[in-house]
Specification:
It comes from Roridomyces roridus. The protein is α+β, with helices and mostly antiparallel strands. The chain is built from 5 helices and 8 strands. It has an 8-stranded mixed sheet with strand order 1-2-3-4-5-6-8-7, with helices on both faces. It starts with 15 loop residues before the first strand and ends with a helix.
Length: 230
Amino acid sequence: MSEACSNFHFPVPEILENALVKLVPFIIAEHAETFFSGLEDSLFAYLPWGPYATTEDYVNGLIETRVRPDPGMLLFAVFDKASGALAGTIGLLDTSPVNLSTEVAWIITLPAFQRTYVTSNATGLLLHWVLDAPAQGGLGLRRVNWKATTANKASVGVAERMGFRMEGVARWDRVLPEWKTVENGGNGITLREGDRRPNCIGIDVVSLGLCWDEWEDGGRDLVDKVMSRR
């Protein structure tokens, strides 16, 4: 069992894979250094956390303090099977066994593997696991969420290609750290005088959803078609 996901609500498979990529539980000792060595600060532009100065900062600032203690969170390492290289991460957050829901999260595809089949196939494998019925090897959840800042059009585009439906925009939903700039995803609206966090921009967040009935009514086939593209 992975150090990063030993507290997850559901049993975690040792591997999720197809012909192109494989997902394995992120293990700090095996994956952190390699993954961190491929990171660029720009990959954190739209995220409310990061970038990190060292591997230790990444592990302590994200995995040990956020992912590992929370049973609703899970992190996978993504490998490109053609090269054998670690290509990124993907995972889940806000997983609820009561409401049978979760959110796709922690998606960081390293630069060498962007605009390839990696992100779509990693996402597709994760969707199969969470939305397929238990008899098919899945968790049988009813709903999967996807959230992204309105400025992150690439993330929203991936979600829509995978069958997620746009459900709304939460305005001023999050406040980013001081080192994030407006160009990196803020809504660009001037803050009022006397704001409590005047050096921190706010972002509007797009919410998308994919539900079990849509999955059964053509959603699974759509995802499989996207995953088959090279």
